[in-house]
Structure formats: C-alpha cells, structure tokens
Design goal:
Layout (H helix, E strand, L loop, with lengths): L4 E6 L2 H10 L5 E7 L4 H4 L9 H4 L4 E3 L2 H7 L4 E4 L7 H9 L3 E4 L7 H13 L4 E3 L7 H11 L6 E8 L11 H4 L4 H4 L7 H8 L6 E8 L16 E8 L4 E7 L9 E7 L2 E6 L6 E6 L8 E4 L19 H15 L7 H19 L5 E2 L14
Parallel strand pairs: 1-2, 1-4, 2-3, 4-5, 5-6, 7-10
Antiparallel strand pairs: 7-11, 8-9, 8-15, 9-10, 11-12, 12-13, 13-14
Helix pairs in contact: 5-6, 6-12, 10-12
The chain binds nicotinamide-adenine-dinucleotide.
The site of nicotinamide-adenine-dinucleotide (NAD) has 21 residues, from helix 1.
Length: 377
C-alpha cells in the first residue's frame, strides 16, 4: 500500500477547513497544524462545531512554524496565513524540500516574488497555487470552449469581484480576530479570483496596467480605516488584449461576487451572478446555431458533480485538493503553477502602485523576465 501523504497546515479559519477536507482523502494523513494562537487549535472557533484538537487528536499542534517543518516529517504544507504573509512560509518549506499548496495572493511584493521564484527553482519539492476559482465550472468550460476553437482569440475580458459589506462590517470581530489583513489590503490586490480563470486561456502575460481608486466615499461610522470603496484596473498584453477588473472595498449591493465576460474573435462566454442564480452564457460563430445559450453557472466543476465528497466553495476546494494530491502522489507538474500564481498576483501589486501614482501607466515584469527588477520604475 502506498504511504499516506503527511500534511501540515499553517494558519487560518481556511487552513483548518482545508485540513478537514484533505483528511477525507484516504491516502492523506492530517499530521500537524501550526498557529501563533493556540486558542485557534484548542478552543471552539467561529463557524466550527468544536475545537480542532478534539476533532483531530492525532495531529500535533505547533506554535512555531520552523519547529513543525523540522519535526513533523511532512510531505506537504498548506499555507493559509493572512493574505499578505504567504511567501516566507512557502520559501521555508521549499528550502526543506516539502511540497507546498499556497493560498493566494502568493506574494505581497516584488522582492517576495523574486525570492519565492528562486526558492521554487532550487527545491526538489513543488509549489502549487491554491486558486480555487480556477477549478470552477466556468473556468473548465471556458478552457474547453477555447481549446475547441469556438472562442477564437480572446481580445477583451472583464471580471469583477464585488463582495458586499454592511456599514461597520469591516470591524466584525470574527473577520479580524486573527489579524487585520482584510482591512489593510488594497482591494485591487485581491485580484486572483478574477484574473486567474481568465488567464487560463491567455497565452501571454499582462504587461501594462493603469488603475484608479475612488478614495473613501462612504461614510463609515466608527472606523479609522481609509481606503478605496472601489478600484478599477485595466491591463493589456503586448498583442493588445485588454482585461478590465473591478474590486470593491465597500459596497452596499448584495449582487453576486464573481462575474466574468470574455470576448473572442469567434465567440463569447460570460458568467453572471445575480439573484443567487449564476448563469453561464455563450455563443460561437463556429457553430451552426450562433445564438446565445444559457446554462447554470454554479461553481461545481463538471467532473465532480456526482461526487458527494466534493464540497468547499461549491466543490471547487475538493477539486483543487484532488488535483494537488494527485500531482504529489504521482510526481506530476503542479496543477496551478507558481508562474500561474504570480501571473494573477503581480498585476494587483502593480495596479495598487499605479493607483497611488494617480493612474500612471506602468510596465509589469515577472521574475522569469531577464530585466525583472524588484524596484518599480
Ligand atoms: N480561496 C478561497 O476561497 C479563500 C477563502 C477564504 C480565505 N482564503 C485565504 O486563506 C488565507 C487565510 O484566511 P483566513 O480567513 O483563514 O484568515 P485568518 O486571518 O483567520 O487566519 C490567518 C491565520 O494565520 C495565523 N498566523 C499568522 N502569523 C502566523 C505565524 N507566524 N505562524 C503561524 N500562524 C500564523 C493567525 O493566527 C491566523 O489564525 C488568506 O490568504 C485568505 O485570502 C481563501
């Protein structure tokens, strides 16, 4: 019998949720967890039925990440610390040749991008990006549509991730009890859910960006925070493809979170989420019937629709773990590579800087470029 994959998780409500989901794979053993707050392990947490220490009595808890890596004999680490502090954890695991599944955004700045890229190149372990929206039905269908030639060349794409907020909800105790990254991160930096799916059919890098922020227009009572209520970025590739992205800080409209539109030279596909009834619409001039068709836009990846174990964000989390563990077990390429992760992460970092510079058009570079620099021009 094949040895079970020993996994450890560092940080997060999400970390513990993914550890729990991983543990249902028969060839996975949830061996260790790490958090700087032991109460997150030993006491019942928000939205959880009980303390994790009771649910997983055989998993060893560590307060010190280095100690976990050195002692727990892990094959895999799942990095689920706050969204602005992933890279150091990934680098440390890669240096010890432990496979990594890193949540997104992978890095918080260009220096981290450079160091993580180099650490991954040196390591005999692999790093995969935990971008679950890349597993959703829309992404799967979009790739299929593109690969069959029904879309043609995508020349203009649009995405929005708009998460509604109630007045004062930024101060919600549960959302901030483990750190304030949710409040501090510029909205446009959380762009991976939007760019990731679109980039699966984009055969070149996003190279230029310009971004604007609204500043704070809403009147937030009781908050010391000042940040953009909405940010809008436009990206372009060297061949002229445009990608437009909207991300909110504050928003009073309870509309669907994730929306995408893709215009191709031969066809079109969109996912529009309104009234809790997401739909996917598409048409192609390569087909006899060129009219727009409509199907359900639920997240569940089609290949997992009849798998009752497929849960977590509508089945996307399960699909992501399944693909990742498959790659670990059989020595395959990471399902969502570090390159793909940086391609969806760095545009947010450059866009934030463009907005700070009043919408300046900036040239984006990536660690694999010969002229990559950690200093922005
Ligand atoms: N892809 C998705 O669907 C999805 C959904 C939710 C969250 N996320 C991502 O998951 C990550 C975690 O989100 P969350 O909501 O669980 O955040 P969180 O703030 O609740 O969790 C972060 C955890 O990291 C711990 N931590 C911080 N520094 C540490 C250190 N040095 N050593 C060990 N632990 C440390 C904190 O104590 C905390 O428990 C974020 O990157 C977020 O973007 C992704």
């Amino acid at each position: 019998m094949m040895k079970r994959i020993r996994i450890g998780v560092v940080g997060g409500h999400r970390g513990r949720a993914l550890a729990k989901l991983s543990d249902i794979f028969e060839y996975v053993e949830f061996a260790a967890a790490c958090d700087i707050k032991p109460s997150n392990w030993y006491e019942k947490q928000w939205l959880m039925p009980g303390a994790f220490s009771d649910l997983f009595p055989n998993a060893v808890f560590y307060e010190d990440y280095d100690k976990m890596l050195d002692e727990a004999e892990l094959d895999v680490v799942i990095v689920e610390t706050g969204a602005d502090i992933h890279a150091e954890f990934c680098i440390k695991a890669l240096e010890r040749n432990i496979h990594v599944l890193s949540d997104i955004p992978n890095v918080a700045n260009l220096d981290e991008a450079d160091r993580l890229w180099k650490a991954a190149e040196k390591s005999s372990a692999m790093i995969s990006t935990g971008a679950n929206p890349n597993e959703q039905k829309f992404t799967v269908l979009l790739q299929d549509f593109y690969n069959k030639g029904l879309l043609g060349k995508p020349y203009c794409m649009e995405a929005e991730y708009i998460h509604w907020t109630l007045p004062g909800s930024e101060e919600n105790i549960h959302l901030n009890e483990n750190g304030d990254w949710r409040k501090l991160l510029a909205p446009i930096r959380y762009c991976t859910h939007s760019l990731g799916p679109l980039q699966t059919i984009l055969e070149e890098e996003l190279r230029t960006v310009t971004c604007f922020g609204t500043g704070q227009q809403t009147d937030e009572v009781g908050t010391m925070m000042y940040r953009d209520d909405m940010m809008c970025a436009q990206f372009q590739t060297d061949s002229g493809v445009i990608v437009r992205l909207m991300r909110n800080g504050r928003c009073r409209a309870n509309i669907g979170h994730h929306n995408y539109r893709v215009f191709g030279t031969e066809g079109y596909m969109e996912r529009i989420d309104r009234f809790d009834k997401p739909v996917i619409r598409y048409n192609s001039f390569r087909e006899l019937d060129t009219g727009l068709k409509e199907i359900g836009g639920e997240f569940m990846p089609p290949a997992y629709a009849n798998n009752e174990k497929a849960t977590g964000h509508g089945g996307m989390d399960y699909a992501m773990l399944d693909h990742f563990f498959d790659a670990v077990r059989f020595g395959k390429e990471p399902p969502i590579s570090l390159r793909a992760g940086l391609l969806m992460t760095l545009p947010g970092i450059y866009a934030e800087e463009s907005a700070k510079r009043g919408g300046q058009i900036m040239r984006m570079k990536y660690p694999w470029d010969e002229d990559f620099s950690t200093i922005m021009e």
